[in-house]
Specification:
The chain has 286 residues and is an all-alpha fold. It has a domain of 186 residues: MetI-like (MetI-like fold). It is built from 12 helices and no strands. α4 crosses α10, α7 runs antiparallel to α9 and α10 packs antiparallel against α11. The protein is globular. The termini are far apart. 28% of the residues are buried. About 3% of the residues have low confidence. InterPro entries: MetI-like (IPR000515), MetI-like_sf (IPR035906).
Length: 286
């Protein structure tokens, strides 16, 4: 009997079993449900309030003159809500106006630094020096030069938050991906076309990072300005309440400053999502 070859032996034994396909998990951006977006911050707020109440009302490890209980702060707000909201409106307006002014000037300065190596080398050390100066030290000088009211407050907001915007704009415009820059050159795009179609869209995520860093700094600048030159606003209210030992009113104003900052920050986040819809689709948080 002739010996069967290997293919014939395999045919006689039957077809070889095929390996089962291994399912490959799909990797994509993690989607958050609307319920989680609302419940998780609320849970964090409740935890913070619980710790605050525990430290001040149950354990009493913090003196009420330093941090009054939540009930006392709530009572202070409930006693004059219109007064608090009026001061909060003034601080919000100063924060937004100063932020918009610093954003416009910061983006223009960043564009200039990114477009000219000479300007970058000339003025970057000066910008770093201006940013390093403690802004609170400039308060008396601003009052002497601009008087009392909103002008020194807006100037303080501008000085405190424009540097991150300048830095993020210049960094974003000078770090265009090499493949996109090469694509623009291969298509014979003009300098303006390359800027408008490639460099600016690629830099927008970095610019928004600077804007999100600057937004809380704008609120801080507004409060510092109101401490020294304000005639209204939450910072002015804190100074007035602290002068008479009314810490509950001062803490109510401080909490309103935090809530205002959270609201403005998430408005900016929503603006980023509408302006840059491709960012969420092309990136993943793992």
């Amino acid at each position: 009997m002739t010996e069967l070859s290997k293919p014939q032996q395999a045919s006689a034994a039957g077809p070889e079993p095929r390996p089962m396909p291994v399912p490959v998990p799909r990797v994509g951006p993690r989607r958050r449900t609307g319920l989680g977006v609302l419940l998780l911050p609320l849970a964090g707020l409740l935890v913070a309030l619980g710790v605050w109440w525990l430290l001040t009302s149950v354990l009493e490890v913090i003196h009420p003159a330093v941090l009054p209980p939540p009930g006392a702060v709530l009572s202070a707000f409930a006693a004059a809500p219109i007064r608090f909201l009026e001061h909060a409106g003034d601080t919000t307006m100063e924060t937004v106006v100063g932020f918009v002014l610093s954003s416009g000037c910061g983006v223009l300065i960043g564009l200039s630094l990114a477009g000219s190596r000479v300007l970058e080398r000339m003025f970057t050390p000066l910008l770093v020096a201006v940013n390093a100066v403690p802004k609170i030290a400039l308060g008396p000088l601003l009052v002497g030069a601009l008087g009392w009211g909103q002008k020194p407050v807006l100037t303080m907001v501008f000085l405190l938050c424009f540097f991150p915007i300048v830095l993020s704009t210049a960094t974003g415009l000078t770090s265009t991906p090499a493949d996109l820059a090469e694509l623009a050159r291969s298509l014979d795009a003009s300098r303006w076309q390359a800027f408008r179609k490639v460099r600016l869209p690629a830099a927008l995520p970095q610019i928004f990072v600077g804007l999100k860093v600057a937004m809380p700094l704008a609120a801080i600048g507004a409060v510092i300005g109101e401490f020294q030159a304000g005639e209204s606003g939450l910072g002015y209210l804190i100074v007035q309440a602290g002068g008479v030992g009314d810490t509950a009113t001062a803490w109510a104003a401080i909490i309103l400053i935090g809530l205002m900052s959270i609201l403005l920050y998430f408005v900016l986040v929503l603006l980023e999502r509408f302006a840059l819809p491709w960012v969420r689709d092309t990136t993943s948080r793992g």
